[in-house]
Amino acid sequence: MTHQNYSFDTRSIHIGEEPEYLEGSNNEVVAPIVLSSTFARKQVTNHGRFEYSRTSNPTRLALEKRYASLEQTRYGLGLASGVAAETLLLFTLIKPGDHIIGFDDLYGGTKRLFNLWKEQYDLQVSLVDATQADLIEKAINSRTKLVWLESPTNPLLKVCDIAAISEIAHRHNLLVIVDNTFLSPYFQNPSVLGADIVCHSITKYIGGHSDAIGGAIMLNDDTLYGKLKFNQNALGMVPSPFDCYLVLRGLKTLSLRMERHQSNAMAIAVYLEGHPKVERVYYPGLESHPQYTLNAKQTSGFGGMVSFEIKGGEKEAVQFLESLELFTLAESLGGVESLIEHPALMTHSSITKKERELAGIKDSLIRVSVGVEDKTDLINDLSQAFEKI
Ligand code: P1T
User: Fold this and answer.
1) pLDDT reading at 1 higher than 50
2) CA–CA separation, 123 and 96 (whole Å)
3) Ligand 1 atom 10: the closest Cα is on which residue?
4) Active-site residue (options: 6, 9, 21, 54)
5) Lowest mean pLDDT segment, chosen from 185-199, 243-257, 289-303, 342-356
6) Average of pLDDT values for 132-157?
7) If you take atom 6 of ligand 1, which residue's CA is the nearest one?
8) Is the pTM of this model over 0.90?
9) Contact at 8 Å (CB) between 105 and 155?
10) What is the second-level CATH architecture of the domain 255-387?
11) Rounded CA gap, 197 and 177, in Å?
12) Which residue, by CA, sits nearest to atom 21 of ligand 1?
């Protein structure tokens, strides 16, 4: 029996963990955490299904099957972190002197990685406002290799037309990579919209409990999958079996969690939009969001991330953040607990102030990862913190 044809909710529980398909199965209902770093063989020149856990591992393989199934791709790769997934992609796809086009509002760590590649390998990077698909076409030159997108972006929740950009890119023989961390495969499948490669920080919604760092790459192309798999083994960017187990476990509630993240986020976005101390709210589920209609067209939801500008500047933002009692002041996102942070001083401090200003990240900007707690408790906490400023 295979569960591949079932709906998303069913696949997120079963794929990779069907007892009869587990490697060395004793009909376990839960994939065992296989800690062995190496696997015995009978013949010197022949190994069995597994050889060495950097190359492949049964717990990781169960997870990789699920990744592919949830993003509706042929292949999935599990990596040690979201940044490890990005590093593997750059290493595999980029030659010195190549040019890439990125959304101007990407995660700060992704831009930092691009900056490293600029220094080490003369990578040329054009960051453009991909909400206007024609700006992507204008940025293409003879050295361009790929387009790198997030939708919605981190932290300004800008949305781009993945299908339109993929069509433009493919006309010019470019690859399209979409970092789908913010919506998770529950709300959006970029490969179905035309993207060639999907990547994730598993650390976020897919793991869902702020207890495992991980990354993933999902794709359909056989040759590219072979290269990525070879390079991953050569470079050693693998997750531990225990982290793979935590993610397999976390994924079983992805759909339940995403629905609750979203309904709480919508309530908070509406509350913030009506608050006199708030300048502007960024949430793709609000009709005031500039790409509200586009987002609704290409996704089945808006997610659990909300950003807003507080009236005033850094001083008011810091005072507000340090007055919260239930929200945890911390980097990261996508866990069951609500987190809040100041992008300019925290997640996006690794890029220069000039780069932040170009992207529109102000010192008054606050980013909220809305958890699955009771929404009234969350709104009451925000209210008491607003009163302190
Ligand atoms: O932290 P890591 O698992 O390596 O993932 C990096 C990453 C990649 N892509 C996106 C969209 C991300 O948001 C991240 C990590 N982001 C945070 C830690 C943060 O607080 O925004």
Assistant:
1) no
2) 6
3) 107
4) 54
5) 342-356
6) 98
7) 82
8) yes
9) yes
10) Alpha-Beta Complex (3.90)
11) 5
12) 332
